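Suppose a classmate hands you a notebook page containing two proteins, each written out with its sequence and a corresponding row of structure tokens. How would you begin to make sense of it? This section walks through that situation. The first entry is reproduced here exactly as it would appear on such a page.
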Amino acid sequence: MVVIGIFNADASVLGELRYTLSKLTGQGSCALCDITNGWNPFGKKSWKEACAESELQIDLIHRNEATLDQLRVAEPLPAFITEKNNEWKALMHGQEMPAFQNNPSALLAELIKRY
């Protein structure tokens, strides 16, 4: 079971700087970033452990790495999506993610239910 998480940030040095500045000034955020990385560029240990124990394969990409079809179904970002029957399907959007901030295992369990 493959699930793609799409960050509400761009993959580039400039994109990371823009995201960091917007987060520091309170003008932007990404719940998926908070769950998977926080301020650690190598990723949170709790996220990595939860993924290692899950039956899901989670692929994380930035919004500028997603296709237009992926972005259409993922809006509003961030989001978790999957492909079924050659169509993209949203599993969870950003407004639901903060509830799982400190419990990535519960987040992955919820994604499995919705898969």
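The notebook's second entry, a different protein, reads as follows.
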Amino acid sequence: MFSIIICTYNRDQYLYDALHHLAVNDYPKEDYEIILVNNNSTDHTEDECQRFADNHPELAFHYFEESRQGLSHARNRGIQESHGDYLVFLDDDAFVKPFYLSNLKKQLDRHP
């Protein structure tokens, strides 16, 4: 299982689209989770995450807030909250292709 960890700070204008690209990929929904770590955003990050969760109830989407500022703290929180065998870190403005996770799995199977 993949744990896709996205750490964000005041990037609400990109966040929903980044999450949406993960939601429409061709990988089985039960084989990945999305962990969003909000690192003290003052914009509409929480609202965008709630909108995404409401629009995609079929996904294992987990939202957390990390009060210690900084990417390292946010990533460590994401690791702490993850349940997957593989950790995938994505930027909050990264738009993955629909085959991203299936290709990643193929590569991991070929090169364990």
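A careful reader of the second entry would note: The first strand starts at residue 2 and ends at 8.
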